[in-house]
Amino acid sequence: MPAVQVENLVKTYGDGTQAVKRISFNVDDGEFFGFLGPNGAGKSTTIKILTTLLRKTSGVASVAGLDIEHDAQKVRKLIGVQMQDTVIDEDLTGRENLELQGHLQQMHGGELKERVNELLKVVDLGDAADKRSAYYSGGMKKRLDLASTLVHRPKILFLDEPTTGLDPQSRAQVWSYLKGLNQTGMTIFITTQYLEEVDRLCRRLAILDHGEIVAQGSPAELKSEIGADRVTLAFENGNPGTGSLKDKAKQVLGGLGGITEIVDSDEGIVVYAKNGGFLVPDIVRAFDNAEIKLSSIGVSSPTLDDVFLKHTGRRIRPEEIDKSRASGMFGRRRR
Amino acid sequence: MTLASDSYYMFLRWMKKLVRNPILLFFSLFQPIIFLVLFTQLFSSFGLLLGGINYTIFATAGIVLQNAFSSAFQSGTAVVDDIKSGFLTKMLATPASRASILLGRLLSDAFRVFAQSLIILVLAYGLGVFPVTGFIGYVLILFTVAFFGLAWSGISLALGLRTKSAETVFGIAGTLTFPLLFMSTALMDKRLMPEWMKNVSAYNPISFAVNAIRDLIINGYNWNSFLLSFGVISLIAILTMGATIYEFRKVVS
User: Fold this and answer.
1) I want to staple A20 with a disulfide (CB 3.0 to 4.6 A). Which of A11, A181, A295, B68 is the partner?
2) Looking at the structure, do residues A97 and A206 belong to the same domain, yes or no?
């Protein structure tokens, strides 16, 4: 049984905005699922619908086999939800925040106490447990927030950009918790701007753009759709510019098979080829014969960034997003 | 009964927040204390106009009510905070009973007004104000005031849920407080009011509650005025709770 099942889901807001346009996808039980897309693509809207916080306009959606509207109350017992902003009650201590969440999930007494102690240890807040969370650092608050979604041992965890705005160290920590949770069998549904982590951790992902799913599959599948590795060449005499050396180099490369594209770059020449790795010895040999001295040659496989670019026509740059968010230049980013 | 237990934990949360913000607690009591100590001194000669009674004794009922009124009027701002911070959403993502979110807040409002009123009455006792109805009188006064606070906080909650702006709630509360207070029998006997104000104050819900409490302090049991105030407060409660539930549904769905 899939953890999340979505069929022809539509959300049209009161003002006529079509945030989500007939999307369909499944998330398997125990999967680490990435839900990506540019700002305003409809990610947060989808998460809100799946977590029973927003009513869908039409379509079918179920979580753990339960209809999200008909069985909303049962769904809420099975899911953990972390919002984009850190949401804790800063007047309460870390422990009290967790206990409150537990109480609202109908957990009480010794069972809850034990669970809270266990979680406080997991997120390294044992020492600060009885301090007012207002005095926590940003990373600690985020960890507390994450822990508060886990008190009732949810089967499926929904996270809306859990690491946006965190420093690199806290970010890495959050990702490592998520990895650990996934290893215990928890299904993780996450939206994020951090593609490297998605590549490393997500078994499958879907890319949303303008309310529609434009691509879905495993990171490897999506990257292989790009169809070519990137081979970067630099020359001993520096950039050969537009001179005869570069023309000669291009001529040499033109004589080799398996290359799909040759592009000038600031550092030298970039070559796109299906199996870049196999091409390296050929390139080296050919340049050697032509007496052109290479200073470096590098092969990189396409990244999710390339995938994202291909499907949405945009690049994700988390750092810039963080800055704009901090300065509030673009106002609220989600609905 | 998850409604009861959820409401209890919501109530507990608000109580903790209240106790941990002593400055807030202090300032909300500051004004009534000023009224009790300074205002009644300044206007003590009103007592002569009222037939030679002690003005402090006369005004205590009004001051207790005024405090309940302004304290309950802040309730909506706390809910605005919860909406803005996302805490409301976080609670809505749990199976907690929806009604408990409102109920917990209302109970905490009633309790806060109860505690504040108790403090004011203790201070008033030090100034020579003791109800002729004794202990039962105190209980009835606190009950009436807490009920009034509960009913009145509904207005603030509905406003907060509708406007989602603490400033608006504060603005409206601040603007309404004094006109409603002065056009009631809280601080002045109706015999000394100009005709038009007398008419307004006769319909001012604050007057009904003040009259009931004042009777308990000065005249003894007057069940007519007590039940009348109970009825008026109930009516307000039904109206404000209706508005609050209506607005809450819009926010929640």
Assistant:
1) A11
2) yes
Query: In this structure, are A211 and A282 located in the same domain?
Result: no
- State which of A163, A184, A219 marks the end of a domain: A219
User: Across the interface, which of A53, A77, A92 has its CB nearest the CB of B89?
Assistant: A53
A324 in any annotated domain:
no
What residues in A contact B85, CB-CB < 8 Å?
85, 87
Residue A55 C-alpha, separation from nearest chain B C-alpha, in angstroms: 7
A275: exposed, middle or buried (C-beta count within 10 Å: 0-12, 13-18, 19+)? exposed
Residue whose pair of structure tokens reads 């069940």 in the numeric block: B223
Residues A132 and A269: their CA atoms lie apart, in Å, by 57
Shared-domain flag, residues A163 and A211: yes
A169 touches chain B (CB under 8 A): no
Torsional class of A240: left (φ above 0), alpha (ψ -120 to 50), beta (otherwise): alpha
Chain pair A-B, CB pairs under 8 angstroms? 57
Q: Answer yes or no: do A71 and A201 share one domain.
A: yes
Q: What is the DSSP string of B37-56?
A: IIIHHHTTTHHHHTTS--HH
Taking residues A277-297, report their average pLDDT. Answer: 86
DSSP secondary structure string, A23-73? EEEEE-TT-EEEEE-STTSSHHHHHHHHTTSS--SEEEEEETTEETTTTHH
| Rounded Cα distance, A235 and B240, in Å | 78
Range of the structural domain that residue A107 is part of: 4-219
Same domain for A293 and A196: no
Q: Do B5 and A52 touch (CB under 8 A)?
A: no
A62 and chain B: CB distance < 8 Å anywhere? Answer: no
Q: Does ipTM surpass 0.85 in this model?
A: yes
pLDDT digits (tens, 9 = 90+) for B103-161: 999 999 999 899 999 999 999 999 989 899 999 999 999 999 999 999 999 999 999 99
Contacts of B6 in chain A (CB under 8 A): 103-104
Residue A189 lies in a domain: yes
Q: How far is B18 from chain A (nearest CA, A)?
A: 9
- Match 């701007």 to its residue by tokens: A193
Is residue A335 a part of any domain in this protein?
A: no
A137 lies in the same domain as A283 = no
Q: Does one domain contain both A192 and A97?
A: yes
Phi then psi for B14, rounded to 5 degrees? -65, -35
d(CA B46, CA B35): 15
